[in-house]
Write a structure and sequence with these properties.
Number of strands: 6
Strand content: 25-35%
CATH architecture: Roll
Number of domains: 1
Helix content: 10-25%
CATH topology: Thiol Ester Dehydrase, Chain A
Structural class: alpha+beta
Amino acid sequence: MALPESDDIPAPLALFREAVRPEWIDCNGHMNVAYYVLAFDHATDAFFDWLGIGEAYLRERNCSTFTLEAHVTYEREVHAGAPLAFTTRLIDFDAKRIRYIHLMYHADEGYLAASNELLSLHVDMARRRSAPLPDGVQARLARLKDAHDRLPPTPQAGRKISLARH
C-alpha cells in the first residue's frame, strides 16, 4: 500500500468509529472499563489494517503484532448508544516495535472520553519470536511519523499513574 506524501497523510489518523453497545454498560450506568480496551483494540485493528499489517498480513506473511504495554486514561464517561470516533497518532517506532496512542471522542458532542497508549511488537508467528518489520512497513511508519511529529504533543502520551501531591 502506498502512502501519500507526508503533507497529505492525515494527522492524526481518523480510521475508526463505533457506538457504545448496551452490553458494554456496567452497574454504574456507563461503559465498563473492559469495553474501553475492546473498543481501542478495534481501533488498533483499523490502524494496523491501514499500515498493511492487519489480518490479511498475518495470513500472507505469518507475522503479527503482540501488545507489550498499554495505558488507558478515562477522561469522561460515555453511555449506551453514544457514537465514538477514534483518532490514532504514531508516537515512535523501531525495527520491531510501534508506539502509538488512540484518543476516543464522543462523536456528536466532541469531548475526549479516553485515551489508550500502546507499545506493540512485530512477531514471526512460526517462531513465536520478535522479528523486524518489513522494510516497506518501516518506510510507511517513517513517513507517518514525519507527519505526526508535526502535531502538538498529546498530553496523555507517556503518562504514569501517580497521586498528585499539593
